[in-house]
Amino acid sequence: MKKYSKQRELILQSLKNRIDHPTAEMLYYDIKNQMPEIGIATIYRNLSDLCEMGEVQKIKPKIGPDRFDGNKEEHIHFECTQCHDIMDISIRENQTKKIDNEIKRLSENIDAECKSANIWLYGLCKKCKKLANINIKD
Amino acid sequence: MKKYSKQRELILQSLKNRIDHPTAEMLYYDIKNQMPEIGIATIYRNLSDLCEMGEVQKIKPKIGPDRFDGNKEEHIHFECTQCHDIMDISIRENQTKKIDNEIKRLSENIDAECKSANIWLYGLCKKCKKLANINIKD
DNA sequence: GTTTTTGCAAAGTATTTGCAAATGG
DNA sequence: CCATTTGCAAATACTTTGCAAAAAC
Question: Is residue B69 packed enough to be buried (19+ CB in 10 Å), middle (13-18) or exposed (0-12)?
């Protein structure tokens, strides 16, 4: 049976308070401020548990260590190919359905039972797009 | 300037000959049969080069080390949540466009310039679906 | 001959595990 | 009390790097 732990609660709240899809290490330093004795292993163990509990999502960026996402709303991810920030893009019901229908149809091609889908977008984020424009003008 | 290398050629051919999205290590053992002196660092270095050259794609499964894909046709990936095999699903022109249009529209939500998209499907592959059915009957 | 690539070993990241002590129910 | 969780240190898994020798051009 799963027992409450102060550490797990802090990790979950800390993750929910940020929108930047931190790595385990980033969360570790964040939480160390409120609880200096905490160990990195506790972070990894709890993130793994929280994933299994469906409270948190582990995501794999193109570059760098795994990141974590505490957003439980329906959304997809955008990764900037320049600064590697990851952003959530929330999607509305009707969009979801349109895409899902199209995608689920694809899994018929290999005779598999598709349970879920994951969509990633890549490109330049707002910030990096702006920077790119400045550099062109120089 | 990039020079030809027997090793790189072998790695690329070996990857193109298989459909199982091997890890660097799996390719290493495969290629060791034809060239026993080869080192694992050569595999990693060349896979990384081949990625930059656009000959090969590095993909991140939910579980385990990075995998590599030598299929240059338009396709998406299906990962079995049971056996963790990864399969290609080829998509036809008209399907691609429908999905792409829907997806690219999403990136407008965050004011980013979307350059590419990646779709993953998850579920039970044909093999594991069959096995699951047998177990239910027992 | 110069530049690139190789194989090997060592180093570097990221993550997991074993274990005795602490905490939760 | 018993089960779970913790912090620490050590172990593991995966990948990259430095370097002298070999291969490509």
Answer: buried
Dihedral angle of Cα B49, B53, B56, B60, to the nearest 10 degrees: 70
Q: How far apart are CA B128 and CA B81, in angstroms?
A: 9
Tens-digit pLDDT profile for residues B1-32: 899 999 999 999 999 999 999 999 999 999 99
Strands (E), chain A: 57-59, 67-69, 75-80, 86-90, 113-124
How is residue B112 written in tokens? 């980013």
Tens of pLDDT along B43-86?
Answer: 999 999 999 999 999 999 999 999 999 999 989 999 999 999 99
**Is A111 in contact with B126 (Cβ distance < 8 A)?**
yes
pTM: 0.91
| Calpha distance B1→B7 (Å, rounded) | 17
CB atoms within 10 A of CB A80: 20
Q: At CA B70, angle to CA B65 and CA B73, rounded to 5?
A: 125
Task: State how far residue A128 is from chain B, nearest Cα, in angstroms.
Answer: 9
Q: Which CATH superfamily is domain A73-138 in?
A: Ferric-uptake regulator, C-terminal dimerisarion domain (3.30.1490.190)
Domain ranges of chain A: 1-69, 73-138
Q: CATH fold of B1-69, please?
A: Arc Repressor Mutant, subunit A (1.10.10)
Burial environment of residue B30 by CB neighbours within 10 A (0 to 12, 13 to 18, 19 or more): middle
Check whether residue B41 has its CB closer than 7 Å to nucleic acid strand D: yes
Closest to B35 in 3D by CA, of B23, B43, B47, B44: B43
Q: Which chain C positions have some atom within 7 A of a protein CB?
A: 3-10, 13-18, 23-25
